[in-house]
Amino acid sequence: MDRPNTPRHFARSAAAQPLLPHASVPPAAGTGPSRLVAPATWALLAGTWLVAGLFIAFGGSWLAAPLGPGLAAGVFALLFATTLAASFGVVHEADHLAQQLGEPYGTLVLTLSIVSIEVILIASVLLGPGEASSIGRDSIFAVMMIIMNLVIGICLLAGAARHGDQEYNAQGATAYLGMIALLTGTALVLPNHLGGAGAFSTPQALGMAALTAGLYAAFLWLQMGSHRRYFLQPAAGRMAVPASAPLPVPQESEALPGTGRRAVFVRSLVLLALVLPIVLLAHYLAIVTDYGLAAAGAPAAVGGVLIAIIVFTPESITAVRAAMGNGMQRTLNLCLGAFVSTVGLTVPAVLLIGVATGRRMAMGLSGTEVVLAVLTVALSMLSFNGQRTSPLQGLMHLALFSVFGLVLFLP
Question: Which of 117, 234, 315, 398 has its Cα between 20 and 30 A from that of 147?
């Protein structure tokens, strides 16, 4: 038996006692704001806010005069680079939050942050001086083609190159794809058959906005609550997480509850501080984009493609990295979840803006786009039908994206 005054007993007793509030204990590494936020992030914050401040002060006069090709290209390059850099910063902070909050909460933070940026950019274009009643539809369709074909195709090939066929939660994939089929069908295909030239009437727009937002909110509620297990990586050799299985709890928050809460708070503030410059610059980016598309004679749908590229490039890189790290479930949560969030948030926002401004928003896809959308949903259902992933499916998704590119740029 240990003696009360032995060093071993003292060490054991001290470890068992809580620290007194007045105890002089050095802070744990990474707990202060200066330690949580890297110098590169501070530099990014300073740079994005500097650009935002310059455009708030002088952007009106810069863009009031007739734009020349050189000035327009320079302004677009600056705004594009700033917005893209801020989006990367948002993804970086959201990824840290994902590690602390666990799945699927972390992925939801990342997805909602990115999709919120997309909604802001679309709203800025809709409220701008140009006629852009189809930008919401074009953006949603571009996100569908880029995320569900290009990005998923790359992820399937990259994951297979590193780890062979990969496993995922079939229940979650089915839930995502069911939402995608329903939301895209009602929002982008149904308007073509309502007699409104591809647009909803005002009562229909209000009803569809409420139904879409309500269904998406219910989906999030179940995803974060009783059906969270649908969106977790199952054990090896299983295609689902049993209802009786205990769900994982984030370890960092358990071990250091105070530190975990502080880190979440600080990173949430940084994430918000990186989103705000994008909000402030969105109007100016919309003006320059409209000018560039008109000057180049590019199809109107290219505007939606540009928004999708700006917003989803950082998240797409995160999804590819997850696949290469043998995290196919996180890849699906990012890719399929991003598109569900895109439709669930963008459709209500666009329809409500249309009602508020007295405009009928063009929502119905063209016949060619309907075929591509149906092929995308059907191929995705076959790719994630409860079996392991396959690089062959990845090649098919990339081929379908190539068809989209041919149709868009070579009419």
Answer: 234
